[in-house]
Amino acid sequence: MRVHLIAVQAELQTAPYTSAESFRQYVLELSRGAVQGLPEDQPRILAFPEAFALPLVFWLETSRAVLEAQSGLQAALQLLREHWPALLRQGVWSPAALYHLRAPWVWPVYEQAFREAAQAVRAYIVGGSIFSPQMDWEPARRLHAKGKGVYNLSLVVSPQGSVLGRVPKVHLTASERKAFLTGGPPGRQTLHTRLGTLANLICLDAFHDSLIEQADAAGAWLVVQPSANAARWEGPWSADPREIEGQVWLREGLAQKLQNRENLRYGLNPMLNGHLYDLYFEGKSGIYQAGGPLALAKSAVGNAFVRAEVEVPDAPGR
């Protein structure tokens, strides 16, 4: 079976995140652009970057003071000041209170936008990620947070618009720990679909052998790696300034991790670009097989759709 893989490289801009309708239209526009010209009867998998929906936490229906803050910390403190009565009702007394405060507003916008887009373009979509508590809905409690933890969560949606998974990132960066996130449990990163078993390993997770091994053993043929790398692509590597960030990414990333696997064959790596307050992201999105890229974005900045058509092998997960 032939499957189209598409990495949506996105550069952050403020306007699409300021209202539910503008975000819905933005996700739909990017999704339609990603599949434009592809045969309608052939399956496709789209992936958006890590932290793609994070700006909703700060910019969805918020004040000019929040939008114009000089840092993420300043924006967070301003939001807490403006909404302290709601904060008191939340009853969450921890540095992660901001995410609990915003989740009831933000999560439905995030989820609904990607459910509609998946249906509209008839694709499996990995909707990047957002910082949020695990959210659930049931009639008596309606939408509510499950527990006090806050995670880097990636939404996976089917072409029918149903949510297949809310996948937590396991291994956090120093910036994520400073943002009061909790690493999620391993074992929730593979999903069984009509196209076979897929693995969703958020950014740093896909550099860890243990999670790649678990995905391979579970029968996954594809690793999706939504990424937001806060470093210059052509700048010094954070772990060793003698090396170049982008070169290390290409050498040590999915092309290397896919070598000699039982089931894993391809990797799909969409990258976030641009500014989120005092953070800056760069990176070339790519689609990989063992040994090298099948397709790679021309630039490490700006928007791009990176596409490749692949043959899905017969794997135990399908």
Written account of the structure:
The chain is α/β, with parallel strands linked by helices and 318 residues long. The protein has one domain: Nitrilase/N-carbamoyl-D-aminoacid amidohydrolase (4-Layer Sandwich), CATH 3.60.110. Helices cover 30% and strands 27% of the residues. The chain contains ten helices and 17 strands. The radius of gyration is 19 Å and the shape is globular. The mean pLDDT is 93.
Topology at a glance:
Blueprint (H helix, E strand, L loop, with lengths): L1 E10 L8 H16 L8 E5 L6 H5 L4 H4 L4 H11 L1 H7 L6 H25 L2 E4 L2 E3 L2 E4 L3 E4 L5 E7 L5 E6 L5 H5 L11 E4 L2 E5 L8 H9 L2 E5 L20 H8 L1 H4 L8 E4 L2 E5 L2 E3 L4 E4 L2 E5 L7 E8 L7
Parallel strand pairs: 1-2, 1-13, 2-3, 10-11, 11-12
Antiparallel strand pairs: 1-17, 3-7, 4-7, 5-6, 7-8, 9-10, 12-15, 13-14, 15-16
Helix pairs in contact: 1-6
